[in-house]
Predict the structure.
Amino acid sequence: MGKILIVDDTLFMRTLLKNILFTGGHTIIGEAGDGSEAVEKYKELKPDLVTMDVVMPKMNGIEALKAIKALDPAARVVMCTAVGQEQMVKLAIKTGARGYIVKPFQAPKVLEEVKNVLAT
Amino acid sequence: MSEFEAYRSLFVAESRENHENLVKNLLIIEKGSDPEAIGEIFRSIHTLKGASASMGFAHLEHLCHTMEDVFQLIRNGSAAMTQDLGNLLLSCSDMIEEMLDDIEGGGDSSSLNPEENITALKAWLGGQQSGSPAAGATPAGKNVVTKAAAAAEKSGKSSPEPEQPAAIPGDSRPVFDIRIIVANECLMKDVRALLAVNNLESLGTILFSNPTKDQLDEGTCDGTVLVRIASDAGEDALKTAAQGSEIAAVEIAPAGTPVSEGTAASPVGPSPANGGEKSGTPKAAAPVQDKAREVKNLRVDIHQLDHIMNLVEDLVINRGRLKQIADEHKIKEMDEAIGMVERSVADLQNLMMTIRMIPLNHIFNRLPRVVRDVAQYDGKEVEFVIEGGDTELDRSVMDGLNDPLLHLIRNAVNHGIEAPDVREKAGKPRKGFVRLSAHRDRDNVIIELSDDGAGINVEKVKNKAVERGLISKEQAAGLNTDDAIELLFQPGFSTADKITDISGRGVGLDVVRRAIESLKGTVRVESTMGKGSRFELLLPPTMAIVDVMIVRISGKRVAIPINSIIEVANFQKDATHQIGKNETILLREEVIQISRLDDMFGNSSDCTVLVVVQYQKRKCSVPVDVVEGKQEVVVKPLSGFIGNIRGISGLTILGDGDVVPVLDVNTMM
């Protein structure tokens, strides 16, 4: 179980994800609504894992991932993606993302991915 | 679906925001390419798609998905935005809105059929693909990669080919061959494979992989990857790194030993997973306390806010009542306590007022679309500018403002702005200009709508009024410009030569005025022939709680809003004069009309005080028996049974339980 920072520009998705992760026994230590807020929260909260949406205003998920990786090369970032965004996720993985989950979220899959990434 | 029921209202609220953003930016890219706007569109439609998929609203998701495909082509520059495409995308946006309405009402969007929209979008997409060779090339290219990957995969069924490096010269690290099999149900096999290869790379040097990382990056992978890696991390660590979610099996063996199917029999590795869970158990109690500090914003149902507001209003009434009791009985301790209560109630009231305020953008944001549609329908060119959309108004005022504003905007484009050719002949730019602005002016919010169109043709208005029998020819001749414009607000008046889809919906400016007056606001018009018109709406930012002066007229109590009172004077009966039909008084060298409210409250002979009130620039005075004092009251609107009464804006209950009418100076004059 880990301390998790949830990054998504919609409250709807954050709430959904938060409830899945909370039910899985994780601690949600923070939420961010865009990439730059995510980077700030990462510095402040030092989470064990970040779930990162790709498409966001101001700073997108890939840029935020880069910034977080620059701050902490060991950061565990799991991308939240959707079918059709394969290229974005691949770019994220090459940038250092440690996992990805696909929308619409299925609770068991989300929890499995988070668990696996936390174990590394 | 049912597990997500709790998220329905949140889904609807955010999806509406995204829909609004979509429409707003569609209108921007229609005017010309704008990377930022297309980015916003993409984000909105993408979010809408993802959220509807999560909620299981398949119809909505399908529509959004197809729209996303179209936006993709616009974004990468392989298709241009045209007016037809704009119309198609906007009608799709309308469908999204209808679906959201349905979902808000408890449906799942399936009662609406977006098939027509989707077919039209697909037809457009089909046209793009057959039309442009570049677009057609993509799938073929993808095919090639797939084939290559498949060929590579076939050769990889045995261990890596002998010409692949077995080790790096001078590197003493052990070399392993790893076969990763991605689970069949995985939706993005190549991404999963890439992730596994990447994880392995962090533990050593990859000497060879099949498909290569580049191949994984470019194309599809059918689920098996072979990797040769030099690493001293050890077999277990390597296996853990490659093993992850959606990995069906990882086979690992020192290089040279063929990786057999048999060694890989174990399915999704339970060992790291279980280990992870165990180590985490002690932390499980933490979530509750950490969660509490995260909630900073809440979404509250507006009805609950209305209910709280009602309670605050009751508190205000009862506070007045308590105060009166304390005054009557002269109980000092109670006075102090009431003083404290009073302060809290005042704070609470202010707070509630602030909470209920929402920026005008809430309704302004929909208007560019209206202007565009009307202009397109009429074949006009219009530049529409919005300013001051962040000005805040009480929600209840906002609710009533939408329709009249919509009507005025339609009018401005439909009747105000001339056709491009006509404008050109008149020496104006072909494109008409409509400006909507809002600002706060002391106690009021002022909304201005101006256009540089034809202006109001006063003679035409007079003729129409005579034609409709509203006034006689003689009356028409004697009317000045302001009075003529005033005719526009008469019920049943419309200068449109024929009824159009756009503004001829049987609703005239009289309805606009009535709607604005019911919000305790006023409408004013200025117009210059050939130059344009300007409508000014003056609105109270909130309407519930008002400062009033309590007076008596023929013994009955009446409340007059303080903000419309400009003076209270002694009433000297011998200073009154009769001018025509009107009774007037000379006050500070100004002739002011006297408005006796006998028909409302009964004949009063012993008026001693004159209350001078003002509406816009017009003054009038009301003789009253006596002024009782000033008070903050809650104005309750008249119920449907009574209907609107000109001159009375509502009722209020005073501290002693007396029900008192509140004078509406605007409609009284």
Remarks:
- Residues 11-23 of chain A form the longest helix (13 residues).
- The helical segments of chain A are 11-23, 35-45, 61-71, 86-95, 107-119.
- The CA atoms of residues 83 and 102 of chain A lie 7 Å apart.
- The radius of gyration of chain A is 12 Å.
